[in-house]
Amino acid sequence: MSTAAINDVKRPNKIHRYKPKDSSAPGDDPTPDYMNLLGMIFSMCGLMMKLKWCAWCAVYCSFISFANSRASEDTKQTLSSFMLSISAVVMSYLQNPQPMTPPWQ
Fold this sequence. Notes:
Layout lengths: L2 H4 L24 H19 L2 H17 L7 H20 L10
Helix pairs in contact: 2-3, 2-4, 3-4
């Protein structure tokens, strides 16, 4: 026997074969859910307080939520969040058609 085989410190009972995760199992990425919730909050602020920048942030969050969602997920909640954000933008510009001023001015 060679010295390499004698000095082998591997323990055969501790070796576990790699098994890849099932690709059909849902992931644990909470980004679409958080962006969906954040978009709805911004939409409500845009509608209730007539803040145009909140309405535009809601549209942005809805796009991120839609882009990060999986095809197997239910699209009703994402679609309702997107439509709510679009309605917030439309209503804020219908009530005051002036261009948006930045919130820091």
